[in-house]
Write a structure and sequence with these properties.
alpha/beta; 2 domains; seven-stranded mixed sheet; 10 helices; 18% strand; protein-glutamate O-methyltransferase; CheR_C
Length: 296
């Protein structure tokens, strides 16, 4: 139940609330085919509660009734459940580390294949492209970036490459990692458009890290701030998918609050612990890893 402060009230009706919350998750999983079981309950509760406030539903049961009959609300909840916390050059110290990796790869590889996994609205893959264009030690023509996400609406925004600044989103500040971001972004008042030159290095596809097959042959995978929302039972299989997608000695960057599970630590060497930058162990093989996707 939502109290006057917008928080969940776990009082005398907590059992009924638990049942109502479970009913919502079951409906979303079975009828809307969104795998709620892959995410931790605290994340799901925050997203459902935000929709309850928007629709002025005071209990999970009331919201569940509304959800079943309102297709627009079903779409709104699915969009709310999609993880879309993102930004240009989030955590600049990490991006300084990524720049070092791209310099190294550009120097030794004819083509540098980069995967921005769970890229939301595309700001991360475009940051990668801008970084490549901005650094004279990186051959931007050699950089091929794939951005993937589970959300089609997010990918539509990504392909468009148009972003709106707001009271709570300071795009100019996000882009200040670069000395002169205007070389890569056209700014019209509060509208920021990614230039065609930056777009040319990036393509977008839908991909589900839990249920879809691994990619292959990537030199660098960036997957940041996804695993903190994922249920522990699925983190390992998602990281296995990423590890299988990397070339031997390829690099992985995860969120600063995230860690590699103990069962996969032998597959990676720590390059920079504070920045959560790892390198795939060239001697590790895929053969010994169980394929959890078949049980998803």
């Amino acid at each position: 139940m939502i109290d006057g402060t917008g928080e969940t009230d776990l009082g005398a009706d907590s059992t009924d609330d638990d049942d109502g919350f479970t009913d919502i998750l079951t409906f979303v999983e079975d009828e809307l085919t969104f795998a709620t079981s892959h995410y931790n309950d605290s994340y799901l509760d925050r997203r459902v509660s935000s929709r309850m406030r928007r629709t002025q539903c005071e209990t999970y049961e009331a919201y569940f009734e509304n959800l079943q009959s309102d297709s627009d609300e079903q779409e709104a909840l699915l969009e709310a459940l999609s993880i879309n916390v993102t930004g240009f050059f989030r955590n600049p110290d990490v991006w300084a580390g990524i720049r070092t990796i791209l310099r190294r790869l550009s120097e030794t590889n004819g083509t540098v294949r980069v995967w921005s996994a769970a890229c939301a609205d595309g700001r991360e893959p475009y940051s990668l492209s801008m970084l490549a264009h901005d650094d004279p030690q990186i051959d931007e023509s050699s950089i091929a970036i794939l951005g993937t996400d589970i959300s089609e609406p997010a990918l539509e925004t990504a392909r468009t490459g148009v972003y709106e600044e707001s009271r709570t989103v300071d795009l100019a500040d996000q882009l200040s990692f670069l000395d002169d971001y205007h070389r890569y972004v056209d700014v019209d008042d509060r509208t920021f458009r990614i230039s065609d030159a930056i777009k040319r290095n990036v393509r977008f596809r839908r991909h589900d890290l839990i249920n879809d097959d691994p990619k292959s042959g990537f030199d660098l995978v960036v997957c940041r701030n996804l695993f903190i929302y994922i249920d522990n039972a699925y983190k390992e299989s998602m990281l296995e998918t990423i590890a299988r997608s990397l070339r031997p000695d390829g690099y992985l960057v995860i969120g600063k609050a995230e860690t590699i599970p103990p069962t996969l630590k032998s597959a990676f060497t720590v390059c920079e612990a504070r920045l959560r930058i790892y390198q795939r162990d060239g001697k590790a093989t895929n053969a010994g890893w169980p394929d959890h996707r078949s049980n998803s």
